């Protein structure tokens, strides 16, 4: 599997518009028809602009069907207790890009 830790870089710019939130993110695997299936959901970090999600591992088969260049969708949401979670933004990347030697210097802007 791949061991990955996700932080505030790709999240922070977008949420400044909304103020503090209770963010969580989902990872989506691209299907043959171009849609995405959620394969992982992070924990929710309450009342923050600077989330630091726990490190986790996910099986490469589950994440991208062992295809490192396949797109992975990162979607970020603001958790609401009533279940109407607010969409904050998303970006796409691939396992190959995440594994890149310069990945530590990479950041993604939410769309």
The strands making up the biggest β-sheet line up spatially as 3-2-5-6
* Percent of sequence in beta strands: 25-35%
Q: Uncertain runs with pLDDT below 50, 5 residues or more?
A: 1-10
Mean pLDDT: 82
Rg, nearest Å: 14 Å
Q: Structural class from helices and strands? A: alpha+beta
Total of helices = 3
List SSEs in N-to-C order. Answer: EHEEEHEEH
Concise overview:
The protein has three helices and six strands. With 111 residues, the protein is α+β, with helices and mostly antiparallel strands.
Outline the structure in words.
- With 111 residues, the protein is of the alpha+beta class.
- The protein is built from 3 helices and 6 strands, in the order E-H-E-E-E-H-E-E-H.
- It has helices spanning 9-15, 60-64, 95-98; strands at residues 2-4, 23-30, 36-41, 56-58, 71-78, 86-94.
- The strands form 2 sheets. It has a 4-stranded antiparallel beta sheet with strand order 3-2-5-6. A two-stranded antiparallel sheet has the order 1-4.
- A hairpin with a 5-residue loop joins strand 2 (23-30) and strand 3 (36-41).
- The longest helix has 7 residues, at 9-15.
- The radius of gyration is 14 Å and the shape is globular.
- The two termini are 28 Å apart.
- Residues 1-10 have low confidence and may be disordered.
């Amino acid at each position: 599997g791949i061991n990955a830790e996700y932080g505030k870089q790709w999240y922070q710019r977008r949420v400044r518009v909304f103020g503090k939130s209770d963010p969580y993110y989902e990872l989506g695997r691209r299907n043959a028809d171009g849609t995405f299936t959620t394969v992982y959901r992070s924990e929710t970090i309450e009342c923050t602009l600077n989330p630091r999600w726990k490190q986790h591992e996910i099986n490469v088969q589950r994440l991208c069907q062992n295809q490192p260049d396949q797109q992975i969708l990162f979607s970020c949401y603001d958790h609401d207790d009533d279940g109407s979670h607010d969409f904050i933004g998303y970006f796409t990347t691939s396992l190959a890009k995440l594994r890149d030697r310069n990945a530590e210097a990479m950041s993604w802007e939410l769309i």
